[in-house]
Amino acid sequence: MIEFPKHFLWGSATSAYQVEGNNTNSDWWPWEKQTGKENSGAACRHYELYGQDFDLAKDLNHNTHRLSIEWARIEPLEGEFSDKELKHYVDVIFALKARNIEPMVTLHHFTNPIWFSQLGGWENSRAVGLFSRYCEFVVSVLAKHVHYWITINEPTIYSSHAYIFGTWPPQAKSLLKAKNVQDNQTWAHIKVYSLINKIYKEQNLPKPVIGIAHHISAVYSCKDSLRNRLAIFLRDQVYNYWILDNILRHKAMDFIGLNYYSRMLVDVKNWSLGSFLWGNCPDNHQPLKKNSLGWDIYPQGLLRVLLKLKKYNLPVIITENGICTNDDNQRWEFLYDHLKNVHLAIEQGVDVRGYLYWSLLDNFEWHNGYDPRFGLIDVNYTTFHRTVRESARKFAQVCKNGVLE
Ligand code: IFM
Known about the structure:
This protein has helices at about 15-20, 30-35, 45-60, 70-75, 85-100, 115-120, 125-140, 155-165, 175-200, 225-250, 275, 300-310, 330-345, 390-400; strands at about 1-5, 10-15, 65-70, 100-110, 150-155, 210-215, 220, 255-260, 265, 315-320, 350-360, 375-380, 385-390, 405. It has about 400 residues and is α/β, with parallel strands linked by helices. It has one domain (about 1-405): TIM Barrel (Alpha-Beta Barrel).
C-alpha cells in the first residue's frame, strides 16, 4: 500500500481551446481551416456543459481542477474586453467551488487572439505588455476566488512547435524567432507574477500561489558516447532547465508545475545542430510500450525528472501527466506506474504537492485532432455524451484516500 501526503491535490486538467468549442476569435480557428487540419469545431461543448463535467469530476473525488481562460474570448479585439465572457469564467470557477473543487487557472495555453497574432504574436516586443493587460483584467476580478495561478503553459513546447518545427501557427522554422518568443514568454511570466501579487495585496487577499506549467521530458541516450552526453546536457539545458533558472533568478515562482509525458532517447550520429537538439534514436533496440501517438511510456523518467527538480527547493505540482490510448487498461497501468514513481520521489525528499491527470475529458489534441484519447472520461463527439472510463474509477479511489493499493 502506497500512501500519499495529506492535503495532496488530486484531480485533472483541461485547456479552454481543447474542450470548450467555437473559439472563433483564436488564432488556431482560421489556421485549422487554412491548413485543412481536423477542425476543433464544437470540441466537447464544455463551454455549455461544464456543470455536468464538474459533477463527474466531483463523483471521481477530484479535489482540484486545472482549467484555462481563452484570451480571445476575453479580448476579442485589441483593447476591447468582454465583461460577459469574464462573467462566464466567474461562473465556471463558482461551479468548481460549489463542488469543493479547488480551481487552478492557466492564463495562456497555446492559443492567442487573432488580432494579437496579426501583430506578430509573441515575436512582437509589445507581447509582454499586451498579455499583462489581459491578465490584469482577468485577475482583478478572479483574485477573490482563485488561489492557484499558472501564467503560461509549456513555453518551450509552444516555441518549438510554432517556431522551430513549424507544426503550429505561425509555422515558422527559425531558432532565432523561437528564442525571442521564449524570452518574451519568460518576461511575460515574470511581469505577470508581480502583477498578480500586486493585485492580491491591493485587495487584501492572502498571497496566491503562482507558477508555470513546464513540460519536461526525461533525456536519455541509447548508448554512451561523447556526442550523446553532450546532447543530453544541451537538451536538458535548452528544453528543461534554462527557463526555470531564468525565472528563479527573478524569484518569480512559488511552485514548479510539471507536465511529464515521456522520454527523449538521444543518439547523435553527426555534428549537426538538429541531431543534438531534437531527433530521437530511430532504432528499436530499447522497445517500450507506446501511447497511441507513438510516445514511449517511461514512468521511471518521471522519478528522474522530479529528483532533478529538487535543487530548486520549491514545491512541485504535477500539472499534467497522461496517456492517449484506446486501451483503458493501459491507461490505468500508466497511471499506476507514474503514481508509484511520484511516491518514490516524495520518499526521496521531493516536495510534490499534487497530481493532475491530463485530461478530464477526451479532447482536441491540436494538430493531431480528435483521434488521441487522453480522457478519464470518453466523449462521443456526435452526441457529446460522456462515459466515465474504468481507469477513472480506479484513479477515483486513489483521489479519495490518497492511497494507491
Ligand atoms: O494536449 C496537450 C496539452 O495541451 C499540453 N500538454 C500536453 C498535452 C498532450 O499532448
